Amino acid sequence: MFKAMTLLALTAFPSIAYADVATHPQAEAQALALAEKAIALRSVAGPGNMTADVARLFSRALVDGGYSKKDIQIVPANNTVYMTATWHGTDPSLKPFVILGHMDVVEAKPADWQRDPFTPVVEHGYLYGRGATDMKLDDTLAIAALIELRREGYMPKRTIILAFSGDEETDMRTGAALADQLSDAGMVLNVDGADGVLNEETGRPEYFSWGAAEKAYADYELTVTNPGGHSSHPRADNAIYELSVALLRVQKYQFKPEENAITHAYFENAAKLEPAKLGAAMTAFAADTTDQKAIETLSADPSMVGKIGTTCVATMVRAGHALNALPQRATANINCRIFPGHSKSDIQTELQKVVADPNVQIRDVSAGSVSTNASPMDTSFTAAVTRAVHGVYPGLPVIPSMGVGASDNMWFRNHNVPSYKASPLFIKPSENFMHGLNERTPVSAIASGMDILLSIIPDLSN
């Protein structure tokens, strides 16, 4: 079914000859310095949100780097902003190439961190601070790379639009606004999230993955209501018990395992890089999505279960109104990550069948999410990414993947704009603290990341 896919993915991984990384010292220094300034700005949703300050910081850097002020737009939106910076191409008949990112970050409580999350620190070879990985350093790498290309005299044929949203970590409304504004784009490259993987023991690059699909985010509220009563007169129809039974049914249920061209290629190729048992299950699943033994092995691995189908899990429960009263209401939130090709209403209908109780009301309470199909396997994109990575690390496996979370790419895919994710940063899985405590990224990742972007951007804008 997916035989043609293997032509685009590596079928055998040669021994890797590691090249000396050619540096661009001015661009690398600018990316780090700008990232430090951006991390110091607390661009968190709610009171004191400094996303607008981040946008102004980025705007000043771009103007100093050769952009015209009239080609930069910062647009207020509720408690945040979004921005675009346009570098006009020489051929206006070509659709624009969008480089996408976000300026906001997840909340971080200073008391929980070893260092203040909004005081950037470079220590022991790492940049520490909220946004070091997700994704202010990626933002500034993109900015510095574009300025470096201008400095070198590069002229794109295709217009390049740098687009940064301001609420990707919360409502995602500015990502939708950007997609509406740029719905005529020819391609989107989202540089969010450290897609290069370093070996845990040696620290050497193991592989690079790029994304062409992502699962849709959905929240469903399950509610049971009841007349209630005095707790000294218990009845069988207790709202808490009834909701609990429904939740256990959801826990035991597995949505149909499935694959698409992206996940098929991922399992075929990434299997060679995983421990023997897991790798064998990945290979078996790629060959037969009904292989029960493979499904059991993959489902037991938290990093893999989301790659083989839709997942739904209980995340919040609220019930009762008094310690000495029977509950009149019990509610729970079920969070689902929906495999591409299924709508949120499809999954809601399936959950209703799983719960099998008409007293349990289910409603979609999702905010800011749409279900989309995978982007096409565009050979110009796959060739550009492979060429860029191999320019730094010859022979390194370059593997397609599907994101199990949500990103602003979904809004562009909803407009049928081919959208891909490829962050040039390399990091160890054990040191990836996106959304977590003590977020950090190796400073050494900046040089290779810059080289990768300085290859990809000209390839995709010509």
TrEMBL record:
Annotated Peptidase M20 dimerisation domain ranges read 213-360
Name the GO terms of the biological process aspect.
proteolysis
A single MF term (Gene Ontology): peptidase activity
Q: Which InterPro entries match?
A: Bact_exopeptidase_dim_dom, Pept_M20A, Peptidase_M20, Peptidase_M20_dimer
Give the record's keywords alphabetically. Hydrolase, Metal-binding, Protease, Signal, Zinc
What the entry lists under Pfam families is as follows: M20_dimer, Peptidase_M20
The answer to keyword Repeat applying to this record is: no
Q: Which residues form a coiled coil?
A: none
* The family this protein is said to belong to: Belongs to the peptidase M20A family.
Question: What is the protein named?
Answer: M20/M25/M40 family metallo-hydrolase
